[in-house]
Amino acid sequence: MSDREKRETSRVQPSAGFWILLVSHVLFVLSGASYSVYWVLQEVAPGPAALWTLLLSLVFGFAGATGEFMGVIDAGTETSSKSGLGLRHIIGACAALLTVTYILTTIVLGRVFTSELIFAMGWATLELCSLHDAHRRGWIHGGKAFAAATLVILALAFGLVCYTAYFLLEGRARFYAGLAPYVVVSLAMLLVASLLLLEKRKPGVPPEALASCT
Fold first, then answer.
1. Which of the listed residues 25, 58, 84, 194 has the most CB atoms within 10 Å of its CB?
2. Distance between CA 22 and CA 190 in Å, rounded?
């Protein structure tokens, strides 16, 4: 491969990676929206339609997670980070939070530790790692990167609060406590995708700057 071909290849990779990341966010939006519809149908009209929306939610979620995981794996090959925060710090912090949540749920509240908590923490970990990689590559900068990470953290915190409230409430209030986190996550992913898309055409970041990050 000639030097020119190598340069052209290096310029395609970051662009493709960006669009994979953006599509992954859209898939997460669709996953959360589908699960929200499932939650409502399961309450008012359980049946095949509810099961189909659940299946769609799982498919969208798995596809979105796969897209982001590919980027995180690629980011993990970096030998050093220019910032003080790295992937290991993010994963470690989320693992510690999951452990604390497990203790509070099973020992303090005396509740069963369900898969929803694992999925929520896995989503937040993957999303924060993906945003870290996007910032490293120059796909999102400064205030927008901070805003995107804040949205993810707030959505996770809101979900954990609703999860706890779900076991303490009854009737319609309990139904809304179970529905709200998925709606909020969908909105958060939509806003993060919008921030990424707005940053895509930001002036002053030449293609060479992006290519050098691969």
1. 25
2. 10
Residue 64 class from Cβ within 10 Å (0-12 exposed, 13-18 middle, 19+ buried)?
Answer: buried
Tell me the pTM. Answer: 0.76
Range of the domain at 199: 3-211
Q: What is the pLDDT along the chain (214 residues), one digit of tens a residue?
A: 444 444 444 333 557 788 888 899 999 999 999 999 999 999 888 888 999 999 999 999 999 998 888 866 665 544 344 445 566 777 778 788 888 878 877 787 777 777 788 888 889 988 988 888 888 888 888 788 889 999 999 999 999 889 888 888 888 899 999 999 999 999 999 999 998 888 765 544 433 343 333 3
**Domain count across the chain:** 1
Q: What is the DSSP string of 176-191?
A: HHHHHHHHHHHHHHHH
What lies within 8 Å, CB to CB, of 193 at 6+ separation is 22, 25, 26, 29
- 90 alpha-carbon distance from chain centroid: 13
Q: Angle at the Cα of 2 (from 209 to 13), degrees rounded to 5?
A: 40
What angle, 0 to 180 degrees and rounded to 10, lies between the N-to-C axes of helices 48-75 and 115-137? 40
Residue 124, classed as helix, strand or coil, is helix
Q: Is 6 exposed, middle or buried (0-12, 13-18, 19+ CB in 10 A)?
A: exposed
Which ranges constitute the DSSP H helices of 45-137? 48-75, 87-103, 115-137
